[in-house]
Amino acid sequence: MAASLPIPVFNTLEEAYSSLGSALDHAPRWDNLAVEFESRFGRKPAFIARAPGRVNLIGEHIDYALFGVLPAAVERDILIACAPRSTTEQGAVRAENLAGSKYPPRHFAPSFKNSAWHLDIDKTQLNWESYVKAGYYGVLNTFFASGEEQPVPVDILVTGSVPAGSGLSSSAAMVVASTLTFLAVNNKLTGVSKGRLVELAMENEKRVGVNSGGMDQAASVISLPNSALYITFFPTLSAEPIPLPSGSSPAVPTESTTTTAPSLTTSTAQPHQASTDPHNTSLAVEVPAASAGGVFVCANSLVVSDKVVGARTRYNLRVVETLVAARVLCRILGLPLDEDISGKRERVTLREVVGRYLGVKETKGGEPLLSTAQLHKGLSELGVLSGRLRPGCWKADAGENTVLAQGAELGVSMEEMVEMSGLEKDEFHETYLSWVDVEAPNGRFQLYKRAAHVFSEALRVLQFRQACLQGRELIDNKPNAPVGENATKAILEVLGALMNESMESCSKLYECSCPELDQLTTICREAGAYGSRLTGAGWGGCTVSLVAESQVQDFIARVKAAYPPYKNLEGEQLKEVIFATKPSSGAFVYKFD
Ligand code: NG1
Ligand code: MG
Asked: Name one GO biological process term (predicted).
């Protein structure tokens, strides 16, 4: 399977660019980075590590509950050029960023104390180098753990085209690229599979302070051109490429279809200003007139999603609420827990609750033991049973009337939650709160709403995957037949409806939207999208909309006219905030001769 493959290391730029499966002109950015590296550090880079951002098509906030998600890598990525440096300061890093004033140069060095490597990461504010340090941390403590072998001193230069805080996972792209950089420059890439890199990057990203699931890192590492990935996390990480209903002819850029010959002649080439080049129309999509396919369009709400600083009351709180909901459901439904399973207190996930509910003994480390049909059944039934998590409904003697009478909005207090868990207060804190800093607004925790979202969203992912598989079959078999076209349209409508339901659930049950995201997704639907939803953690950042291929330009024009923050944006500035995406390939390393 895809996750067990080695990380690609390319020795020629032809190979590197063609692996991206895109008609974009990548050369200017790569050239510019290499030229700048040489002018700043006085020698050529030894490697460039590349990791893409991703757009999540469906499956929001369910990866840390260990349910499958459906993202695709985007063409926008992080590139890190690096080379070892000759100095006596072991493992020291000079880190610079091409976006200079926003991300000032940093110099830091790890220290080896008490049998472990340390780097200072400030979790109270967002610093760009924290993501570089996070990637380095895991490499140090995995490959230099004994303290005997020393990491080499390194110079690095970073450039990124994934907008930060936009839900397109610039953070995971940074962490994956950084992890790859330090692996490559220390000659530790051999034997590291894509799956291992995902595990390392997941661990690394948690060091920045967000207890995230593994979706972003897996998408950034494992993705393949032209398909989305159905990523599952239980019992182990697994990834299945899912073809998208993108029509019979693939979408191509309107201009720059001729790819500049790979150059990277660092001593002669002039730096290009790729991102501000008015002729760089690389993200506009030309649409085959007769195509019946759909295209995913990202639109940034321009509200910056502050996930790290806001993690206490947002992301990390949701992680705790879903975990506690899983325990309480086990108790309410009389399912095996703790002693029955492992002999000690466990933090059971909502995904594991499904297996227990269906009476299937699932073991970690093996193949998933639930069939798609079983998972479907379990999710549907548990979606209904999650109503028992409403205040007052969880006690054994709670009658049906109570279920109907109690509002979901209220949530439960800390005391009620501890009581529902069946744990002593100390044990509860140890199991659910000792490793994370959270604060519930008004002291109320929302177990019902969070579990209801997770079960329904996980079900929508299964339905979306199924519809994509059917859609591709139709397009492949009957590209021109009217019946095929109508059927394809019907599939796009199914996908769009699932995206709309997902948005509704994120907004109402998971409460991870914001007024601007609600407004922008409504505008996108009114502008003709089959469906539109927030993507990524939410509370700001991007939306993703499914749009008929033949309608993309018209759609963009309508959204521009209707969404107030876009009114004064033209040309490149507009393309920065709203663009069609084509699934790209995952992370790799380019090695200079
Ligand atoms: P974003 O907002 O794109 O960084 C975050 C998490 C994911 C996932 C989504 C919500 C990180 C690194 N990633 O994505 O694991 O939980 O939110 O579906 O925090
Ligand atoms: Mg992120």
From this structure: galactose metabolic process
